[in-house]
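Friendly challenge for the regulars: who can give me the C-alpha cells for this chain first? No prize, just bragging rights.
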Amino acid sequence: MKPGLLLGWAPHVAALVLALGVPAPVWASMDTDVVSGRINSYECGDNCYLTIRTEDGEDLTGLCAAPECEAWNENAEMPAEFVGRAVTVMIEMGEQTDAEGNVMGEFPAFTAITFDN
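First reply, four minutes later:
Bragging rights claimed.
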C-alpha cells in the first residue's frame, strides 16, 4: 500500500490495517526521517492525520503529532490557509489510539513541522 492511497481514508485504512493484521507499508518502518513538501490535507477521526506532497510528487500521510498540530488537533481542523504551504517535517513512528485512548499500534507521525514559506 502506498502512502498516497491513505489520502482521504487514512483513519479508516489505518483501522483496517490494525484490525486485520496487515503488515505496515515499507515506509512505515523508518526510524526517523526528514522530508520536505507541501501540505496537501488534514483530517481527523480517532487520530488526526496530515498529508504532505513531497517534491517528487509522492503523498505522505502521518499522525499530526508535532507541537504545531496541537491547536489543529484540539479543534479537529486545520485552517485552510495552511494547505499548499511548504514544510519540512520530521517523521518518526507514533502511536495510534482508538476513541477511548487505547493504543492500537504504530503509524508514521510528523513530530516536528517547519514552515518554509
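The beta strands are 32-44, 48-54, 59-64, 86-97, 103-115. The helical segments are 10-20, 70-75. Your move, everyone else.
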